[in-house]
Amino acid sequence: MGQRRRDADRPLGAWYADDPEQAVHQAEISAYTTHQHREAVVGAMAVAAAAALAADPASPPSAEALLDGVVALVPRSAVGAGLRRARDMLDYGDTATVAAVLGCGRRTTAHDTVPFALWSAARALGDYEEGFWSTAQVGGDMDTTCAIVGGVIAAGKAGAPPGVGGADGEPAGLGAGGGVGHRDGSVTPESPLRNAVPGQGPGWASCGTDAAPGVPRLVG
């Protein structure tokens, strides 16, 4: 999954917040222009589905409902198997253990990246900062996993990044930082990440068997 591919699926999902099936369909079509591998396409579909569900203007989903909804919208695949496993691990509090089981992008494949990213996003809906740092602390392909997690969380109106929003309640800095537009005319803003270097300080772990000794990595 390349940078441009994953960046494209999150605003696509938010745009179709009231129609996740259409978000998945459009993601599948657009993914084939850059990715011919079926698992990569399913990964794009899953990210778009998650963003659409998180951006639901009626009611934001629970963590369980988010992953159940994504699983129902993607075809049978290694990504889908990983998502079902991620759903079963929502009650795990140790992010490093979950990353050791699901993978966190070290293999640079969709099924080694998307399930963990959506698990992390589901557990932090409405809390952009928590989702970002809990994802970054396990290492792996952090630019991909954090991009997915941040985009899905920010698709929801309660998931704006820290520091976004003016004193009058209006979004701040949209011209500089960009944002996710919804078809109802509202915008969920995005902003640059705060100046910090993930991986420095206590609590840093690396995904894979070295992150949680004795926990095998499962291949979807």
In a few lines, what is going on in this structure?
The protein is mainly α and 220 residues long. Helix content is 50%, strand content 3%.
How does the SSE layout of this entry go?
Elements: H1 3-15, H2 20-31, H3 38-54, H4 63-73, H5 78-88, H6 95-102, H7 114-123, H8 128-136, H9 142-155, H10 174-177, E1 179-181, E2 187-189
Antiparallel strand pairs: 1-2
Give a description of the structure.
By secondary structure, this protein is mainly α. Helices cover 50% and strands 3% of the residues. A two-stranded antiparallel sheet has the order 1-2. Strand 1 and strand 2 (187-189) form a beta hairpin. The longest helix is centred in the N-terminal third of the chain and has 17 residues, at 38-54. The two termini are 16 Å apart. Mean pLDDT is 75; it is low at 1-8, 166-183, 189-206 and 209-220.
Quick tags:
mainly alpha; disordered N terminus; 220 residues
Helical fraction: 40-55%
Order of strands, widest sheet? 1-2
Which assembly state applies to the chains in this document?
Answer: single chain
Radius of gyration: 16 Å
**Residue-averaged pLDDT, rounded?**
75
Tally of individual helices: 10
Calculate the terminal CA-CA distance, rounded to whole Å: 16 Å
Strand content: under 5%
* Largest sheet descriptor: 2 strands, antiparallel
Molecular shape: globular
Poorly predicted ranges: 1-8, 166-183, 189-206, 209-220
What is the strand tally? 2
Q: What structural category do the secondary elements indicate? A: mainly alpha
The helix/strand order is HHHHHHHHHHEE
